């Protein structure tokens, strides 16, 4: 626990002087001179022309490429990337806290389950990757839980999938590992889609078993009785024993494994709290997502939307008493950033969207027109800057106030050409903080579990980040 606290301290020390940078709005990039205000001097000194910006982007995109020799004339950029990478899971300041999937499997020894069924149907590549790995991990966890029950077997364990969605993970746990799963989702349409998918999946089983060169196993044919769904809101009053008995009659159902794949916003933290509060939940495997939807305890969200968090009330960050005692706050943009993936952005050489620049330029126009209020344009399909401005002002009801001609707009865009390229590099510089913020969120969750007395709680890197960016899972057992 002490080591996790030290790692949190070290990340907080790194983040704190940069919180303004991390939380700044790209909208104000030009009007508030973000480049000058936030970018370290060493980087500003070496990046001045469009050519420099293009080279800097290459350095950012190549950061995971072992064979890349960093551009020697951009030492400031290189040093910045190296410094930030120390504070990610696996970096020199946060070493040995997250387990690799292999390490976790080794620790499970005799309880270890593997995916044998080749069944890629009805899932995209990302989901398939996640499901194959997570189903085996949850099954291993259930096996470990069952082995610790006096006179209990895997038959007595029920998996609850919190936020089941279309039932990708839950149906595979039931189908491949013969474990009872109750998929719970608060959205009726999701439950109905999960049931339709289950029916389609059943038809695909014989072919998949054959393709995987497996013996016809009894539970491959029992998907209906092993995988059940229900539309419910999971909260602290959910009576899992009653729910499980209603869906799986017969037998005493009192040992649960709570799993959740991409439990968005506060649902992830609430699942961890549920694990702690409910003695019948003996194991948990939780992968979070959508950190921007979490509510924070120590900062008021300027774009707070109560309808978005009503399903999962409470605070998602911080969870540990250590960070709560410090009243630590991230801020909305920091949480937005944490949901980005630099691994994927680099693998795909993702160029930040032109729309960021268009919005920043529109802000220049607003300021010139004396428009003081801050406006949220939102997502918009547009063809070039002029079209973007026309559509935005129409959407905001400002067409009468913003009367600038097309010609002047094009002139403005040309005048800021260099700054618009610079803005893209700024975006990539700020993106370096993304995994650092996510690391802090994950360490806080792990520390919460350790503080709550669960020695056997782990952070495990389940997925390949380029395929599935939210790749870390919190896994814990109660014995
Ligand atoms: C990001 S989706 C993930 C779906 C699925 N697990 C997957 O990986 O494809 C999150 C799901 O959680 C559901 N959800 C959110 N809060 C919930 C709650 N408190 N109880 C039950 N379901 C919830 C949403 O309706 C949504 O289907």
From TrEMBL:
Sequence ranges assigned to domain Methyltransferase in this UniProt record: 126-296
InterPro entries: Methyltranfer_dom (IPR025714), METTL25 (IPR052220), SAM-dependent_MTases_sf (IPR029063)
Domain of life: Eukaryota
Chain segments annotated as transmembrane: none
Coiled coil: none
UniProt xrefs under CDD domains: AdoMet_MTases
A Pfam short name: Methyltransf_32
Record's protein name: Methyltranfer_dom domain-containing protein
């Amino acid at each position: 626990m002490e080591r996790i606290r030290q790692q949190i301290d070290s990340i907080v020390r790194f983040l704190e002087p940069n919180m303004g940078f991390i939380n700044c709005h790209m909208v104000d990039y030009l009007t508030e001179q973000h480049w000058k205000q936030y970018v370290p001097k060493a980087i500003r000194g070496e990046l001045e022309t469009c050519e420099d910006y293009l080279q800097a982007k290459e350095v950012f995109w190549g950061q995971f490429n072992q064979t890349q020799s960093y551009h020697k004339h951009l030492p400031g950029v290189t040093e910045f990337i190296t410094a930030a990478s120390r504070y990610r899971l696996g970096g020199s300041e946060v070493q040995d806290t997250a387990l690799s999937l292999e390490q976790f499997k080794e620790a499970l020894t005799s309880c270890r389950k593997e995916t044998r069924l080749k069944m890629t149907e009805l899932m995209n590549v990302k989901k398939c990757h996640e499901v194959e790995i997570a189903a085996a991990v949850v099954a291993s966890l259930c096996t470990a839980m069952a082995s610790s029950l006096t006179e209990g077997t895997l038959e007595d364990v029920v998996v609850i999938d919190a936020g089941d969605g279309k039932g990708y993970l839950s149906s595979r746990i039931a189908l491949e590992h013969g474990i009872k799963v109750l998929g719970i989702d608060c959205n009726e349409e999701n439950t109905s889609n999960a049931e339709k998918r289950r029916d389609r999946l059943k038809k695909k089983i014989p072919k998949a078993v054959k393709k995987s060169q497996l013996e016809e196993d009894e539970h491959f044919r029992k998907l209906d009785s092993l995988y059940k769904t229900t539309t419910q809101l999971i909260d602290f009053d959910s009576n899992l024993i009653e729910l499980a008995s209603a869906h799986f009659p017969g037998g005493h159902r009192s040992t649960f494994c709570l799993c959740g794949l991409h439990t968005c916003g506060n649902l992830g933290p609430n699942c961890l709290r549920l694990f702690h509060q409910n003695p019948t939940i003996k194991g948990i495997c939780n992968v979070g997502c959508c950190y921007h939807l979490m509510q924070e305890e120590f900062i008021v969200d300027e774009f707070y939307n109560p309808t978005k968090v009503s399903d999962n009330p409470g605070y998602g960050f911080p969870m540990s008493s250590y960070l709560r005692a410090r009243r630590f706050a991230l801020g909305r943009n920091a949480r937005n950033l944490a949901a980005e993936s630099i691994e994927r952005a680099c693998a795909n050489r993702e160029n930040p969207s032109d729309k960021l620049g268009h919005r920043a330029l529109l802000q220049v126009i607003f300021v010139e027109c004396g428009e003081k209020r801050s406006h949220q344009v939102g997502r918009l399909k547009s063809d070039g800057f002029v079209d973007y401005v026309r559509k935005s002002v129409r959407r905001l009801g400002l067409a009468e106030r913003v009367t600038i001609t097309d010609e002047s707009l094009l002139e403005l865009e040309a005048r800021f050409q260099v700054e618009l390229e610079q803005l893209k590099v700024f975006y990539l510089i700020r993106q370096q903080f993304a995994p650092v913020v996510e690391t802090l969120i994950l360490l806080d969750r792990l520390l919460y579990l350790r503080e709550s007395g669960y020695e056997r709680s782990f952070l495990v890197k389940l997925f390949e980040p380029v395929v599935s960016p939210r790749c870390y899972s919190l896994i814990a057992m109660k014995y």
